[in-house]
Amino acid sequence: MKIIMLGAPGAGKGTHAKGIVEAYKIPAISTGDIFRQNIKEGTELGKKAKSYMDAGDLVPDDLVCDLVVDRIGKDDAKDGFILDGFPRTIPQAEALTKALEAKGTAIDYALDIEMSDDAIIERMGGRRVCAGCGATYHVVNVPPKKEGICDKCGGNLELRKDDDPETVKKRLDVYHEQTAPLIDYYKKQGVLREIDGTLGIEGVSKAIKEILG
Ligand code: ADP
Ligand code: ADP
Ligand code: ZN
Fold it and tell me: What is the pLDDT of residues 108-131, one digit of tens each?
């Protein structure tokens, strides 16, 4: 099963991609996580991506497309994958369609988690990410057992640098301008499924399970 997670920043793509991983045993591939890991390790890619990410802009397509096409060609993705945060522009979607076409395959589902900008802005203030392992929490919706500490690795929970309110607003503008057109792109391919992102963790998980079967 080949799945794409669509939705604004903070709609819950990463959280629910992880739920699908557990249920369907296919890897979740998050381009945001890949970039953050590269920044942490100080790689060339990380150095190139950082200024765009900190400003709330998209990293240029040419830094993203080959990376994802390579990644989905790996052995663990041969039975399927979930892409979280890719594609984010029409050229990225076209590159993905082309790469899959070359293998005689295509995306099965584009899951669009829908939320208003106001709901996103309200929710984003509570997102916390582990500095150690990257696990995501929410101070109200997904609290860790011990405040400020990751359940999985004991690392410190932090506010992501690009989650300050000003950068979130910028990212929402970028989303509406560059990423929202993908909704129509995948609707035309007949694979779009819409999910109400305000349903809560349980509600969204249930809606996704009903779609994927
Ligand atoms: P969120 O989950 O909040 O939407 P991500 O972790 O997916 O954020 O992405 C963080 C940042 O990484 C983005 O704002 C962007 O700068 C960069 N990024 C991630 N994926 C892509 C992509 N497919 N194309 C361009 N930039 C990307
Ligand atoms: P994205 O990957 O789309 O940027 P995340 O998965 O990081 O979004 O979720 C954003 C924040 O909202 C996180 O703090 C997460 O714990 C929380 N969250 C995710 N899905 C839900 C949901 N369905 N209901 C309530 N909170 C959620
Ligand atoms: Zn951790």
Answer: 999 999 999 999 999 999 999 999
